[in-house]
Amino acid sequence: MSSAATRATGHDHLWSVTEHLEDILATVRPLEPIELQLLDAQGCVLVEDVTVPVSLPPFDNSSMDGYAVRVTDVVGASEEYPAVLTVIGDVAAGQAEQPYVGPGQAARIMTGAPLPPGAEAVVPVEWTDGGLGEGPVAGMRARSVSPEGASGQVHVHRPAEARAHVRAKGSDVKAGDRALEAGTILGPPQIGLLAAIGRGTVRVRPRPRVVVLSTGSELVQPDEELGTGQIYDSNSFALCAAARDAGAISYRVGAVADDAETLRSTIEDQLIRADLLVTTGGVSVGAYDVVKEALSSVGDEDEAGSGIEFRKLAMQPGKPQGFGSIGPDHTPLLALPGNPVSSYVSFELFVRPAIRTLMGLKDVHRPTTRATLNTDKALTSPAGRRQFLRGTYADGEVTPVGGAGSHLVAALAHADALIVVPEDDTSVEPGAEVEVVLLG
Which residues, other chains included, contact 117 with Cβ-Cβ below 8 Å and sequence gap of 6+? Predict the structure, then answer.
C-alpha cells in the first residue's frame, strides 16, 4: 500500500485533496540521472551545475563587417577629409592567421572574426568607401567576385574610439563561471549555450514515460463511426497531451473494453515502457467499474509497498480516485475518474505534480493567484467538498465558464484556470476574492 494508507480508516475514509496529493508526492521518486546527447536532453532537468570551460567569446572579435584599424589613424576623419589607409588583407571568421595592422594600415574584417594584432577598433564598412574610391558604401562585395577588395586603399569617413565594435573576450561568459544551475529545464536557449561552451552531452533526469489508458466498452476512436450508445474516446487524447505539456513522453493506449482480465493484461504489457501509468474510467462504484475490479486484485500483493488503493476524495469533480504501485519495479499508477472534466481536473491536481516530481523539479505545482469573481450570481458548492470550477482569468478577474457538470468538455476547452471553492464554503458571491489555479 502507499505510504499514507495506514492513516486511512478503511474504504470509508474520505480523503482530502491535500492528503491524497501528499501521499502521491511522498511515494513518487525522481528518476535516476543519465548522460544524454544535447538534443536528446531537450525538456530534461539538469542534475548538476555546468561550469564554463572556455570564455565566450573565446577571443576579441568584430561585431561588424568593416575594417580593423588603429585609433590614431582615423582621428578627425570625415567625408570631406577621409583617413586614407592601406588595406593589407582580410580577416574572416575561423581564419587561423591574421595580418598585423601597422601604422597607416587597415585589415578588412568580417563579423565574428578575431581582432587582428595591432588593431584597436573596427570601423563599419558603411563608414568607408569600401575601397572603391567613391562615397560611402552600403556593404562589401563578396571576395569571390572582387578579390582585389582585400588590397589597395580604403577611405574612412568617421573616427572610431578604442574598442569600438569589438566584442571583448569573455563578455558573454568567462571560463569558470556557472553557465547553468542544477534544476534547470533544458530548452532551446540552454541547449544552445551548452553547445557554445563545447558540451556535447549533459547529465539529466530523463523525461518520464507516461502511459495513458482509457477504459470503457462505449468508447470509439475518433474517425470511426459511432454506434448506438457509443461516444468518442477523448480522455486518452486530453491526458496524453497534458502529460506532454507537463514535460513527459506520453504513450496513448486505445480504449480498453470493460473486461477486468483484458485490462489487467494490457496494463502488465505496458509496464515495460512506463515510469508512470494513468488510467481513466472504471473507478467508481458501478457494476462495470473494471479498473477497480482489475487493480484491486492485481499481482504484487506479496511484495511490500505494492498494490492500488481506491479512495473517495472530498472534492468535486473527481471524488473517486485510485493510487498505488504495480509491477516488479513498483511503477506508480494513478486511476482517474472517467468523466472528461473529472479526469482532466484530477490530472492537473495529482498527475502533473507526480510527473514534475519524477523529472526532479522543485516546483511541481501550477501557479496560483487571487482573483475577483466576475459572475452575475453566486456560485454554489457542496458542503465538505473542495470544488474546482472552470474559468477564464484576465487582469485580476476570473469568469466561470460552463456549469459544474463533469461531462462538459466544450467549457473545459475554453477555460484557462480553475476556480477553487474551499470545503467550508457553500456559496461564493459575485465580486468575492477567490483562489485561482492558472492552467496556461
Answer: 98, 100, 101
Element (H, E) at 386: strand 386-394
CA distances from 53 to 65, 173, 330, 389 (A): 29, 10, 41, 51
- Integer-rounded Cα Rg, in Å, for the chain is 32
Phi-psi domain of 431 (left: phi exceeds 0; alpha: psi -120 through 50; beta: other): left
Q: What angle do CA 9, 312, 308 make, to 5 degrees?
A: 75
Residue keyed to cell 539529466:
204
Question: pLDDT digit string (tens) for 15-72?
Answer: 999 999 999 999 999 999 999 999 999 999 999 999 999 899 999 999 999 999 999 9
- The per-residue pLDDT for 302 is 41
Task: Report the sign of the C-alpha dihedral through residues 103, 107, 112, 114, in that order.
Answer: negative
Short-list 406, 393, 402, 384, CA closest to 436 = 393
Strand locations in 218-361 (E): 219-220, 231-232, 249-256, 276-280, 307-313, 315-316, 320-326, 331-336
Cell of 225: 463511426
45-46, strands of its sheet edge to edge: 34-37, 201-205, 45-46
Q: What pTM value is reported for the model?
A: 0.82
Closest by CA to 181, choosing from 55, 48, 53, is 48
Measured CA to CA in angstroms, residue 218 lies from 224, 226, 318, 358, 420 at distances of 13, 9, 20, 33, 32
pLDDT at 285 > cutoff 80: no
* 15: amino acid identity, one letter: W
C-alpha to C-alpha distance for 77 and 71, rounded to whole angstroms: 11
Each residue's pLDDT tens digit, 114-125 = 999 999 999 999
Q: What's the rounded Cα separation, in Å, for the pair 52 and 198?
A: 9
| Structure confidence by residue, pLDDT tens digits, 364-403 | 999 999 999 999 999 999 999 999 999 999 999 999 997 6
